[in-house]
Give the backbone structure.
Amino acid sequence: MAGRYCYENGLPFSAMVTAECTNVGLNILFKASSLKGLSYYVFVLYMYAFSTLVLFPLAFVFRGFSGQLCNYKGIEFSSATLASAISNLTPAFTFILAVIFRMENLALRCSITQAKIMGTIVSISGALVVVFYKGPTIISSSQSTSLSLHSPQGTSETPWVIGGLLLAASNLLFSGWYIVQTQVMKIYPAEIVVVFLYLLCATIISAPVCLIVEGNLSSWILRPDITLVAVIYSGFFGSSFSSVIHTWCLHLKGPVYVSIFKPLSIVIAAAMGVIFLGDALYLGSVIGAIILSIGFYGVIWAKAKEELRQDYCSASLGSSSDDKTPLLDSYKSEDIE
């Protein structure tokens, strides 16, 4: 019983937190690489190709191209921090799509539904507090100059707005992809094979598009610096590892459970900025993290209660059918006599 609980609850939770950490790290690496001149077309194609190579042997051992383009072009126009902030729209998009496709029950008078809605709103609000409210400094910057993850000073606000719109479109596409993946896993529950085929198709589709758009051949030469690190990291963790984790959790827990971890990325981004980039820690980040945690716990609690109710109903139906069997047998025996 304890092992089943750990597999169905503890393991998906730990896996999703780890996946969000790797995704935030990927956003930071890509932003640093783009400042070094790495084209996002080059990055997307290399990422899919390398991820396909990583999963190729695993697909035989075990079992959103457009969204990624919008995502990394949006980061190039804006910042990794804004990408983490905009990703907070994913739970709302996913919940709406899940309701439309009848993958989530929407009973407004039910406490479980109310907890899901309120938890999602609170977690998004907490993440927005982290982004838009700084407050006094709790931990000052440990470096005089650190890698800038925000838009360069003196630049126009237009690219920043375009970047935000592209990131919003990216998260809408990702929400739709979560819905599709969940349905695919019901038909063919083999996570690694599904992700491998997805990455292979994405590589085939992205290759001609990126090669045509990015015609400068020198851009495709990776230098042994942060750009090469970003591509290798994206291949191992950004697409292959995170996609497998997301697909597995979609199969086990559903799209809403996976999407609710997105607001957690802004807190992870703030923590990584303090630890690895020497950024300052502000009071707003702490307050926002607390608010986000409350909303996050609310959704997780609602999902747990929903699963318990479903298990109880299944057990009740099973026991009632077992109770009916002896009666049927007795009626048959009386008819024979």
